[in-house]
Design goal:
Length: 110
């Protein structure tokens, strides 16, 4: 807890560190999901052939970050956000019509 407080109070005031951490934060979910597959399924022998914990973690992080960047580029190319928006509208419409048919009242929490 003290380390987190220290980083929050002093390290994040350095602009370049803040930018780097924000960039990593933007890709953090992709990195988390990708690294599990790399570590256990696809590149297991390559990752663990490094023989040193720091190198293993670094290689795994760098490969995961590169794949995350490529994934985000691919999502832009296929207009992923627009596809998701359309799917959400379709699902919302289906749910609303389901509730209307069964005369179920929905209470919206604001």
């Amino acid at each position: 807890a003290i380390f987190i407080w220290y980083v929050y109070e002093f390290v994040l005031d350095v602009p370049i560190i803040k930018q780097i951490l924000e960039y990593f934060g933007k890709h953090s979910m992709n990195i988390f999901l990708i690294h599990s597959l790399l570590r256990t399924v696809y590149l297991n022998s390559f990752i663990y052939s490094q023989k040193h914990f720091i190198i293993i973690a670094g290689v795994l992080f760098i490969i995961s970050l590169i794949l995350s960047i490529l994934l985000e580029i691919f999502k832009k190319l296929i207009r992923y956000d627009k596809i998701i928006d359309k799917l959400q509208l379709i699902v919302r419409h289906k749910i609303d019509s389901y509730y209307e048919k069964r005369k179920i009242k929905v209470i919206e929490i604001k």
